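Review form for a predicted model. The reviewer records the input and the model, then writes brief findings.
Reviewer: anonymous (R2)
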Amino acid sequence: MFESLGDRLQKAVDKIKGYGKITEDNISEVVREIRLALLEADVNYVVVKEFINSVKEKALGSEVAKSLKPGEAFVKILKDELVDLLGKEKADLNINGNPATLMMVGLQGSGKTTTAGKLSLLLRKKYNKKPLLVACDVYRPAAIDQLKELGRQLNIPVYDEGLGDPIQIAKNGLKYAKENNYNYVIIDTAGRLHIDEDLMNELKNINNEIKPQEILLVVDSMTGQDAINVITGFNEALPLTGAVLTKLDGDTRGGAALSIRHLTNIPIKFIGVSEHMDGLEEFYPERMATRILGMGDIMSMIEKAEAAIDKDEAMNTAKRLESGKFDLEDFLTQMKQIKKLGPLENLIKLIPGAKKMGLNDVKVNPKDLAHVEAIILSMTKEERRNPDILKASRKIRIAKGSGRSVEEVNRLLKQFEEMKKMMKLLKNGNMKFPF
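Model under review:
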């Protein structure tokens, strides 16, 4: 997500950090690089022009001129302008109402139905809601089947009447939700390959009947500049309350995200960051700006950890680490917790300075974690609690039981011992970090 843009902006930032003073001459080259980076990332030309003019004007202002570290002052200006461009503050989803109602709209193929499922999961997990999905895409039977399958996977109910009247289905779905104590209704509507009058009239009619608190437009981030036309077209017909950008984990340049709010005034409320059902994130302009500039995103890391990791188990492990009793059983527990966080490489990228440390290209093969788990599970409880008793005959038995080699068993035991030593150093306060 924004990788190419981030790389180019970070190079420009590194260049200006070396300047003792910012002048009209030395900033011109840096500003030109930033302009090209934004244009190549598919950011709208008008947006780029206004953004660059604002950055340059502030960078040549008296505040930067008086600064002892003008490079750092410039980075702050660049970050603040990016945050401003992305919408300044986080736009919250309206979750009030009994039931609260949300209509999901968008072109066919934008990821609308999948996003409806992802959003229902997020509402249940984060906001403790009891959601109901309503299938109103009656022109594409596969959409109804897809929504029902997602509902089955997530254990979230789906209201459908097959290929009936979508307006009546939406009304009946809302009535069903009230009767059965569902407190959040997500209506999945039909899409088209392009905006047309019939589609818009149908969506207007559903809106007039249901009067949802939220109308979210799902936009495929790979559509680039055309995303603005799509949003404008829908917004002229419907009172959109927000946008969801999907497929930001794909090979996308990200320009749509940097143009949407500025050109349409529609806030981005969510972004799709993976194909997994938990791959929908609330959109924070400041966090996205720091990610683009390679400053990491510690808050998102903390939130992911808090949502996935069992606090009691984490506390027990911390106490065992402090007492020096950390064993392979604890290690296995921690591994299972870490797996809940999703692909580790996605988490690593949120670390400040990850790119400079060469961590952005780290690939963690899920099979490697599965192999480690298999080895530990092939040990007896006694062996896990006291790895020192693992001699040659036991290692051979464990290797055969896990389908791995003795060399892999030895490697795991060595890595475990090294980790314990590192933990001991941390506990005693003898470890110095290079930052």
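Findings: The first strand starts at residue 100 and ends at 106.
Further findings: Strands lie at 100-106, 131-135, 158-159, 184-188, 214-220, 242-246, 268-272, 280-282.
Recommendation: see findings above.
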